[in-house]
Amino acid sequence: MAETDASYSGKVTFELVSPERILLSETVEMVVIPGTEGDFGVLPGHAPLISSIRPGSIRVYAGTTVTESIFVASGFAEVTPERCTVLADSAINVSSLNRDDVAAELASANAALAAAGTAVDAYEGKQLSLAVLVATAKLEAIDTK
Amino acid sequence: MPSLKDLRTRIRSVQSTKKITAAMKVVAASRLKKAQDAAESARPYAQRMERMLGSLAASLIGQPHAPALLGGTGKDQTVLLIVATSDRGLAGGFNATILRDARRQIRALQAEGKTVKIVTIGRKGRDSLRRDHNRLVLESFVEIGRKGVTYPEAKMIAESIIARFEKGEFDVARIVFNTFKSAMTQIVTTRQLVPFTPPDAAIGGGTSVSYDFEPEEAEILAELLPMNIIVQIFTVLLENTASEQGSRMTAMDNATRNAGRMIDRLTLNYNRTRQAYITKELIEIISGADAL
User: Fold this and answer.
1) pLDDT tens profile B211-226
2) What single string gives the DSSP state of each residue in A83-130?
């Protein structure tokens, strides 16, 4: 019953939750999530899905225009026909990102990775390359906004 | 008979004690409010995390390839006890109750022939457990949540614990802390962190919807389990902070009241003594006059 109602109303409840608090909770027409295995759009009536998230921007759509664009570095998304919940460590509004800052971040992350070379253990190496990935994704998010 | 000067000094000292405890009570009350709000707003994340894990774990638990954080190492020989206390004292029985329960558990586990290792959070726990279980304490975290508990702090603690687990330093991890009921009551609670035990409700509720997983269940679970430990520790730290402030508020309220009662008693004593002196001097003057 609830399912059909949600599908007809054409809206899906989107929640963005950080460990500290609920960052965003609203009904939207569509939201696009950067899943680990590719972006996916969530419309009302979406099949139940749990996916992990890669660094990228979550885009909230009204019609064909993006109303909100939020960068997340990692997290999980839980989708049901009437609801889409994203659990993220931290989230930044893409419009508050500064391109120069991010470019500097990318450069320093690359430098750290190069400097570390093979001298670090697997865990640290993973952290360093993750920092590069996050910075690259941020840059991409700014450019495609 | 005590001299009037001594009594005056006593009264003054109790009065300043009362002022301090009253101020501490007010501070604790405002911190308690903040801590409760923080605990409240952190709840949605933990709930949703639990729901996801519940539906995942239900499909994977008991399978041979389940990750060790979920299935355990197959033994329970070495137990890691994480004792979460506060940095500061003067909080009533807050730290004492946690430490008493932790010691009881340590003794019980050792009596069963198990190896116990300890990680402490908070200065009070560290100082106290170092006295009699110094060899068992692996690591101590202090100054956690000085300006309100933050997620990165919880993450730091959790990562150290997960690293120890991956090195095979322990089989089971439990955390001892105080659950916040009200400012009057806090309950010492022990929660198991490793291996993960899904709450029964989560399993029941999770199976009603069958989710697709992207990537596969096992891969998501491998990411979700460490995150769950961070969240669990984060929630524990928040609960503990609220309990600490609640306990301190009650303790300081009692202390203020006691000081008030003591001041009343001392003032009465002081006035009686003063009158006794006056009477004595009068008698001396009158009998002196009579003698003339």
Assistant:
1) 788 788 778 888 888 8
2) EEEEEES-EEEGGG--HHHHHHHHHHHHHHHHHHTTSS-HHHHHHHHH
According to the CATH classification, is domain A2-94 in 2.60.15.10?
Answer: yes
Report yes or no on B112 lying in a domain: yes
Residue where the block lists tokens 């004492």: B96
The stretch B61-79 carries a mean pLDDT of 75
Per residue in B41-56, pLDDT (tens digit) is 888 898 888 888 877 7
Contacts of B244 (CB under 8 A, 6+ apart): B35, B86, B91, B94, B178
Q: What is the dihedral of CA B118, B121, B124, B129, to 10 degrees?
A: 0
Query: How far is it, in rounded angstroms, from Cα A58 to Cα A35?
Result: 10
What's the pLDDT at A1?
40
Q: Does a structural domain hold residue B134?
A: yes
Instruction: Determine the residue among B34, B43, B48, B241 to mutate to test chain A binding: the one whose Cβ has the most chain A Cβ atoms within 10 Å.
Output: B48
Q: Model confidence at B208, in pLDDT bands (50, 70, 90)? A: low
Residues 217-256 of B with CB under 8 A from A: 219-220, 223-224, 227, 230-231, 234
> For B94-136, how does the pLDDT look when each residue is reduced to its tens digit (9 = 90+)?
999 999 999 999 999 999 999 999 999 999 999 999 998 888 9
Which residues, 6+ apart, have CB-to-CB distance to B253 below 8 Å?
B25
**More confidently predicted of A23 and B69:** A23
- Predicted TM-score (pTM) of the model is 0.83
CATH code where residue B112 lies: 3.40.1380.10
Domain boundaries along the sequence of chain A: 2-94, 97-143
Q: CB-based contact (8 Å) between B27 and chain A? A: no
Q: Distance between terminal CA atoms of chain A?
A: 37
Is B245 domain-assigned? Answer: yes
Sequence-separated (6 or more) residues with CB below 8 Å from residue B278: none
Nearest residue, CB atoms, B42 vs list A21, A37, A89: A21
> Complex ipTM above 0.90?
no
Q: How many structural domains comprise chain B? A: 1
- How far apart, in whole angstroms, are the C-alpha atoms of residue B269 and residue B247? 33
